[in-house]
Amino acid sequence: MSRPLAPKGGNDNVMTPESLAAQIVSHFSPTGSILEPCRGEGAFFDAFCLQPEVTDIEWGEISQGRDFLTWDLGGTHYDWTITNPPWSQIRPFLRRAMEVSDNVVFLCLVNAFFMKARLRDMKEAEFGFKEIVFVKTPPRPWRKTGFQLGAPHIQRGYAGPVTFSSL
Asked: Residue 79, exposed/middle/buried by CB under 10 A (0-12, 13-18, 19+)?
């Protein structure tokens, strides 16, 4: 009997280890304004604070009253959205992230980006894959699934080659 990779209803709250968030942020070296829509315990947020080229950081966290999918950002546009989104809600998070930023990096199962509907959403929003970074699955409570965990980076207007790398 198979188990779902993410529970229904978006209650898939698995916190990113601080060391993994720091590695991802260091790898991409984001600059400018950053949006972290799923702050959780703050692993990515804290890593952004250590980046000298980051000029502004905004965060969301549903448990603190800032639901990324319904939150009025007041027309603000960000250079980067980097997060570990709820895996059961990848598509709506991806659509919203592409609306409000030029670069999107999600810590997720890499295959989540290769669903036909998500690829169509990316094409319609004029985003292309720039890099896919493979990462090791952290220890529990992260589940071993047999699917590769990664941090795909998509960028508005990008149509060049895709780089594959590992942390």
From this structure: middle
**DSSP at 68:** T
Q: ω into residue 85 within 30 of 0, thus cis?
A: no
Q: Where do we find the tokens 């972290």? A: 36
> Whole-model pTM?
0.92
Q: Is 55 exposed, middle or buried (0-12, 13-18, 19+ CB in 10 A)?
A: exposed
Q: pLDDT by residue (tens digit) across 101-136?
A: 999 999 999 999 999 999 999 999 999 999 999 999
CB within 8 A of 53, min separation 6: which ones? 29, 30, 31, 32
The values of phi and psi at residue 86, to 5°, are -65, 125
144: pLDDT strictly greater than 90: no
The H or E element spanning position 91 is: helix 90-100
In this structure, are strands 127-135 and 32-36 parallel, antiparallel, or unpaired? unpaired
Q: With cut-offs at 50, 70 and 90, classify the pLDDT of residue 13.
A: confident
Tell me, what DSSP letter sits at residue 41?
T
Distance set, CA 41 to CA 48, 64, 131, 144 (Å): 14, 11, 26, 22
